[in-house]
Amino acid sequence: MEASSKKPVRLRMAPSPTGHWHMGGVRTALFEWLFARKHGGSFILRVEDTDEARSDKQYEREIVEMLSWLGLDWDEGPDWKLEGGEWKTEDRGSYGPYRQTERGQIYRKYLEKLITEGKAYYCYCSKEELEAEKQAMQEAGLVPKYSKHCRDLTSPPAESLRLYVSKHRKLKLNLRIWYGAMWNLMLLCSAIWSSRATWSLRFIILEW
């Protein structure tokens, strides 16, 4: 892989602050830092804190402290400093915010564009309803798959909308997938699964 001479390279490290940082993350950061420094580019730290239930500022601070201890300085991203006995954080760089949870306004216009162009749709199904569908398919000896129940709805079901407004149900935005082609999915376990239109895939873009 060669860096382009026309445009400076920008290497992004995006750790998730949901636990103690592991060696795999350190290795990735090292390779990206070396590549950026060799080609005169930027090494960027962006925190993937979208798992609000498990994300913790303490783990984010640990990541920053470890990068500093390793000498892997970053050009853009959140920074933590101890001032007056208290930890304080601020962004460095011109393309912030550098935490995913703080970039909602930036992404909103693109989400609206996907909806307008028919490339995304709202799903009103609850977790319990989807689990019931899955169990029913398994009991029938079928491979569990998303039923695409909400994919072609022109308006939300009244009861689902009422439950969402009353905060008893989450709303999801799914990527609209056109079925009919061969899908090759490389899984983390390095196994390759090939499937035709009979396997209904479901990609959730946003849940709130």
Mean pLDDT: 80
Q: How many domains, in number, for the residues?
A: 2
Question: What oligomeric state best describes the polypeptide chains here?
Answer: single chain
The secondary-structure element order is EHEHEEHEHHEEEE
Number of helices: 5
SSE topology sketch:
Layout: E1 10-13, H1 23-38, E2 42-45, H2 57-70, E3 77-83, E4 86-92, H3 104-116, E5 120-123, H4 127-139, H5 158-165, E6 172-175, E7 183-186, E8 192-195, E9 203-207
Overview of this protein structure:
The protein is an alpha+beta fold and 208 residues long. The protein has two domains: 10-102, HUPs (Rossmann fold), CATH 3.40.50.620; 104-179 and 198-207, Glutamyl-tRNA Synthetase, domain 3 (Alpha-Beta Complex), CATH 3.90.800.10. Helix content is 31%, strand content 21%. It contains five helices and nine strands; from the N terminus they run E-H-E-H-E-E-H-E-H-H-E-E-E-E. The strands form four sheets. A three-stranded antiparallel sheet has the order 5-6-9. Strands 1-2 form a two-stranded parallel sheet. It is elongated and about 55 Å long.
Structure at a glance:
The chain has 208 residues and is of the alpha+beta class. The protein contains 5 helices and 9 strands; from the N terminus they run E-H-E-H-E-E-H-E-H-H-E-E-E-E.
